Amino acid sequence: MATPAVAVAVLGAGSWGTALAALIARHGFPTTLWGRDAAVVAAIDQRHENPRYLPGIPLPDSLRATTDLAAAVRGADLLLVVVPSHAFTETLRALAPLRPPHAGVAWAAKGFEPGSGRFLHEVATELLGGDVPLAVVTGPSFAKEVAQGLPTALTVQGENTAFVQQVACVLHGPEFRAYTGSDMRGAELGGAMKNVLAVATGVADGMELGLNARTGLITRGLNEMLRLNAAIGGRPETLMGLAGLGDLVLTCTGDLSRNRRLGLALGRGKTVEDAVREIGQVVESVQTADEVMRLADRYGLELPISESVRDVLHGDITPAEGLARLMARERKAEYPEALFQGAQD
Ligand SMILES: NC(=O)C1=CN([C@@H]2O[C@H](COP(=O)(O)OP(=O)(O)OC[C@H]3O[C@@H](n4cnc5c(N)ncnc54)[C@H](O)[C@@H]3O)[C@@H](O)[C@H]2O)C=CC1
Ligand SMILES: O=C(CO)COP(=O)(O)O
């Protein structure tokens, strides 16, 4: 059970930050949630509800919320950053001078630094220094279900074993299993890529291409994840677990996914702008598709599904042209023979 000595600050009061902060508070750890929207923060702190992102779901009375970053971070033993990836760098910049010297930093954002394509652990290492314990929290987990207390499993990955265990300890509980590992690169890649691939299956479902097409895209999408993961030096088992396959299946099939819903709307003929406006929350794939392809180009890899998603998101091809392009590809072996060797080099 809880070890109340660990005080936690969660930064980012959107759906996922709120759900994780509520989970940790329910486990008995003193938890403060920082958000920039004063109305949302006041509602969480006083009415125990996030009416903008998790309407109607009661939050624990013990969860505190504030718009004052310094106050949120002061006295914290563990910092969990849950802003969208495009806001990760500026949040860490603001956090760096405020961080209590002993506090490690974990994050649950899924994506890369837009523009540079850097992994978030690379950004964190640069901005915090190499000695600060770091960890990634990722896996198949819709915020709404976690906030409702439905059973969930995810993974915490980082090189500092003691910190990884501390993060897993505050998350783990009767309705939540937190697994652990040390592969931040593979874990971050899986969380980022599944959002792009969810758009592809959403498009196919929006075009009513059938269940075979959906499953073909999921499986060939996993193949794209495994090949890029081998190139960047991630471990294959990371991508075959919660951070990869697990989150890919959830996001490609579950209509709670915003990335899947973007794909559904595109497949039904909507524009990216209209679909994103209607979803009204962060849709990470819009930027991540560019960064996945930048990474693939760097390693000279062909990722046809991810590439088609990028081109559809840019309006360079229609969903129908994307489908035609994928179906016209040459016949080939299912797996390159050397697929799993890259990770062992
Ligand atoms: N919602 C979910 O089910 C899950 C989300 N994630 C990831 O968590 C991250 C956050 O997503 P959500 O909470 O779902 O997004 P959301 O759209 O529900 O909320 C976004 C939050 O970020 C805040 N924000 C935006 N720009 C900011 C900035 N510059 N500085 C500070 N705060 C800023 C907004 O005010 C809002 O509170 C994303 O990377 C997402 O992929 C991961 C797992 C599950
Ligand atoms: O990451 C998620 C589930 O694990 C949430 O997916 P969406 O961002 O597509 O809603």
UniProtKB/TrEMBL annotation:
PANTHER family: GLYCEROL-3-PHOSPHATE DEHYDROGENASE, GLYCEROL-3-PHOSPHATE DEHYDROGENASE [NAD(+)] 2, CHLOROPLASTIC
Name assigned to this protein: Glycerol-3-phosphate dehydrogenase [NAD(P)+]
Subcellular location(s) per record: Cytoplasm
Gene Ontology cellular-component terms listed: cytosol
Residues holding sn-glycerol 3-phosphate: K110, G139, S141, K194, D247, S257, R258, N259
Glycerol-3-phosphate dehydrogenase NAD-dependent N-terminal domain ranges (all copies): 8-162
Gene: gpsA
Function as written in the Swiss-Prot or TrEMBL entry: Catalyzes the reduction of the glycolytic intermediate dihydroxyacetone phosphate (DHAP) to sn-glycerol 3-phosphate (G3P), the key precursor for phospholipid synthesis.
Chief location category: cytoplasm
Binding site for NAD(+): G12, A13, G14, S15, W16, G17, A143, R258
SUPFAM superfamilies assigned to the protein according to its UniProt record, in alphabetical order: 6-phosphogluconate dehydrogenase C-terminal domain-like, NAD(P)-binding Rossmann-fold domains
Record bears the keyword Repeat: no
Biological-process GO terms, alphabetical: carbohydrate metabolic process; glycerol-3-phosphate biosynthetic process; glycerol-3-phosphate catabolic process; glycerophospholipid biosynthetic process
Domain of life: Bacteria
Binding site for substrate: K110, R258, N259
Record's keyword annotation contains ATP-binding: no
Protein family per UniProt: Belongs to the NAD-dependent glycerol-3-phosphate dehydrogenase family.
Domain Glycerol-3-phosphate dehydrogenase NAD-dependent C-terminal span(s) in chain numbering: 183-321
Source organism: Luteimonas wenzhouensis
Binding site for NADPH: S15, W16, R36, Y53, K110, A143, R258, V282, E284
Catalytic activity, EC: 1.1.1.94
GO terms assigned for molecular function: glycerol-3-phosphate dehydrogenase (NAD+) activity; glycerol-3-phosphate dehydrogenase (NADP+) activity; NAD binding
